[in-house]
Amino acid sequence: MSEQKHTRTGWLYEPLFPDIRTWPIYQLTKDRDAFLKQVKEAAFNAVKEQTKTTQGLNEELAKTYYLERIRVKTNAWAADKKDEGPFWEGVKKKLLKLSPENEKTPDLNEDKILESIIDRYTEEIAGFFSPAAYNFAKEATTFGFARLLNASEGKGISRFWKTRHNLHEKIRLQGELEQIRSLAKKGTLIMVPTHFSNLDSILIGWAIQSLGLRPFLYGAGLNLFGIGILAFFMSRLGAYKVDRRKKNMIYLETLKTYSTIGMLRGCNSLFFPGGTRSRSGAIETKLKLGLLGTAMEAQRLNFLNNPEKPAKLFVVPVVFNYNFVLEAPSLIDEHLKRTGQQHYFRENDDYSTSYKMAKFMIKFFTKSSEMSISFGKCIDLFGNPVDNDGNSIGKNGEHIDIKRYFMTNGVFTRDPQRDAEYTKMLGDEIVKRFHSESRVFASHLVAFVGFELIRKRYKKLDIYAVLRLPEEDQKLTYLEFTNGVSRLLDRLREMAANGEVHLYHELEIPEIDTIIETGLKNLGMYDAKRPLYKSKDGFIMSEDFNLLFFYHNRLEGYGLAKYI
Amino acid sequence: MDSQNTSDKFPVGVIGAGVFGTAVANLLAENRDVILYSRRPEVADNILVKRMNRGQKINERIKPTSSIEEITSRCTLIFPVVSSSSFREMIKTFSPFLRPDHILIHGTKGLDVRLKEGETLTEKSQINRKIIRTMSEIILQETEVMRVGCLAGPNLASEIALGHPAASVVASRFDEVIREGQRALRSKRFQVFGNHDITGVELAGVLKNVIAIASGALSGLGYGENARALLISRGMVEMVHIGKLMGGEPKAFFGLAGVGDLIATCSSEKSRNFSVGFRLAKGEKIEDILRSMDEVAEGVNTVRVSHAFIHGAKTRAPMTETIYKCLFGGMTVKEGVDYLMNLPLGTDLDYFS
């Protein structure tokens, strides 16, 4: 693999648009009042369209009040506004006044209540962008990341001041970097990464900066805004707030509208289509289509509102490739509880303090193992590949006129059901690309083989029983393990040749023993208990079978088990 | 929806001037102008001059053509109705002319299998769903068209040609496709139902042909309605079993495209698949039967595909396996019936579990 070059400033590329004042995300803040007004109006219309009648709206408002009251009482967060209780009490009073047995109050109707709720939600969701905070954060992250990283290498005080280039050796940005930069000049980018760890959000921000792209509009969990310093930066970097506890229709419509209008105004956007971190450790196979749907809507509106020069949206699938996931033990625990029929799960608040957060980052950077972020080929919203000039390329190599996807019998038509189907199909395509863009590490390989060989031995047991096996039954001889690795490697190489997956450079050597050694060394190196190790008497064993299952899952979904 | 005002100014297209394609074109012509495409110019010319094709009178609103350019540029709604064996080739030829605003609703009841170069399906073959394509999947794979639907149901071409009342299903993930299909096809004598499970509807239409062959065979042996009722109801169980494994929802099999089409084809001597079974039972050889037919009996290929799929999925489907042996394995129809009648009993209905 060729070494990546760096700019004088340590980033991979120079910024494409040096003048912050021209950035759409900055314009949102400059034009904040008009922007929020536009969001509120559009969200209002969307809710009205869905509820159809006054009666329907009344029911929706009552439902929203009911859900919000439960949330306020049973699941309060530090980031919540102080007047949550009184506000929703007020909504209740107004709704009571509207009930048929009461006399009509002038100036009070369902629309007014809806407006007040949307108003509150919009103000809560909205972020703003401060160039000063942006510049500071940019410097601080590079500096901070690099110092943490260098602290683990070399000795003495000088190690802190070594060149910062190390960061790109530790975190490799791979894939279609040039294409992304080219398309950033032609249209609006929609970045959709896989989600394994809380670190993803921070690293993707750094990667975007490193590619010289303008910052992305990004929905961050509201819980993160309860943490002092993080809240300070995130709220000033254009991040908007997403509250996973609020599942009522009015909130979701407001959130989606915020995203759509951000894109309409030309902002690059980022969201994790899996919704939350992968609990099982597997690459996402089912996506949450809500925000993806807002991209579809933005694309349609771009064609409708600006037929002369419609802005095009490009979807960039991104895959994080880790040797270890810091939160793996708690994630797999939750996964097993969920699949084990325990139904109710509270959305928890993982990084509850700045301290925990910092500890987390330090651990990540001081453990010396590589990771990579792979950027896939860009596609349009209909799953067609695009060339570097932004043209959608058809099955016969011709340019496709994608506005026609929104046309019926020669005219533009609005059809939410149709667009929802397009969005589902786009989701399927993104899942496919997640799998093919993923980089297989030696650690993924050994984890998969180790777990599958044990599982094969106990075919009659279900997964929970396999996980509960005593340690002495989870022993593999080195020979059977090597044979398994070798068979899986053959299959993976075949798939890589067909473009169905990518192999990380460490797998491109012929020596199986070296690959196994690398894999065992890197696999879960942070975890207190080793998911897989070679014992003194030469057996392959596991200290934590649940964790091994988690890391094994990374290669689920490729139909590989039968090759071992 | 907004599209309703504009659709009537475009003619509707039909690809394929076989028996069923011609019948569909005549149905459509009751509402709209139709362009009927035939790959062979002499067929198009013949229709133009004689206004007759495949024993059916041609409605005056039908314009025959052999120009891909003409049908694709003038029509946004097109019904491909060609045999499954030539479907992929046809779609590939059409692909450069198709745009994202085309809507394709096919009426082909067969499956496509992508085998390796030089490979053929034999008794030993095992295949998985990944290499099997329904016709709508071929369209999605080979073109930019996303709005795809399928037309299925008890539609014996000869009865449609006589103007008897009938109904059909248009299945698509898209409401819009169903709506456009209904608007184009509905008439006083033709009802059109919608269904969102396109895969289920396609598979129901495909798999029923296997049972239709068996039904013809029973008639060929001179058996009556008890035997046929047994066949149809147990055949349903097997269709649902295989259909589920191939990704269809069982529900689709209980609609017009499943049980409706099954009853029609299993009772009708006009069905090609039925007559394959009938003649087989009379002792004719399968090669001779196929050679003498001027259009494809889709069921014969479906038996091959299903058989290999069942093996690949490591499951059993006794009827399909027996029909396979009668067609390609030297078993006589009488032996096949005896074999099935001696099977140990299972439960009556197991697809609801």
Strand content of chain B: 5-15%
Structural class of chain B: alpha/beta
How many structural domains are formed by the residues of chain B?
2
DSSP strand count of chain A = 16
Task: Report the oligomer.
Answer: heterodimer
Summing up helix and strand content along with how strands pair, one would put the structural category of chain A as alpha/beta
Determine the number of helices of chain B (DSSP H or I, runs of at least 4 residues). 16
Read across the widest sheet of chain A, the strand sequence of neighbours is 1-7-6-2-5-3-4
Task: Give the strand tally of chain B.
Answer: 12
Task: Tell me the CATH superfamily of the largest domain in chain B.
Answer: NAD(P)-binding Rossmann-like Domain
Q: Please tell me the total number of domains of chain A.
A: 3
Roughly how many Å is the radius of gyration of chain A? Answer: 25 Å
Describe the overall structure.
The complex is a heterodimer of chains A (564) and B (353). Chain A has 564 residues and is α/β, with parallel strands linked by helices. Chain A folds into 3 domains: 20-24 and 128-216 and 268-437, no CATH class; 30-125, no CATH class; 439-563, no CATH class. Chain A has 20 helices and 16 strands. In chain A, helix 12 packs across helix 15 (416-437) and helix 16 packs across helix 18. Chain A is globular. The model of chain A is unreliable at 342-349 (pLDDT under 50). By secondary structure, chain B is α/β, with parallel strands linked by helices. Chain B has 2 domains: 4-199, NAD(P)-binding Rossmann-like Domain (Rossmann fold, 3-Layer(aba) Sandwich), CATH 3.40.50; 210-341, N-(1-d-carboxylethyl)-l-norvaline Dehydrogenase, domain 2, CATH 1.10.1040. Chain B contains 16 helices and 12 strands. In chain B, strands 5-2-1-6-7-10-11-12 form an 8-stranded mixed sheet, sandwiched between helices. In chain B, strands 3-4 form a two-stranded antiparallel sheet. In chain B, helix 2 (19-29) links the parallel strand 1 and strand 2. In chain B, helix 9 (198-220) runs parallel beside helix 12 (272-281) and helix 9 crosses helix 14. Chain B starts with a helix and ends in a 12-residue tail after the last helix. The model of chain B has no long low-confidence stretch (mean pLDDT 93).
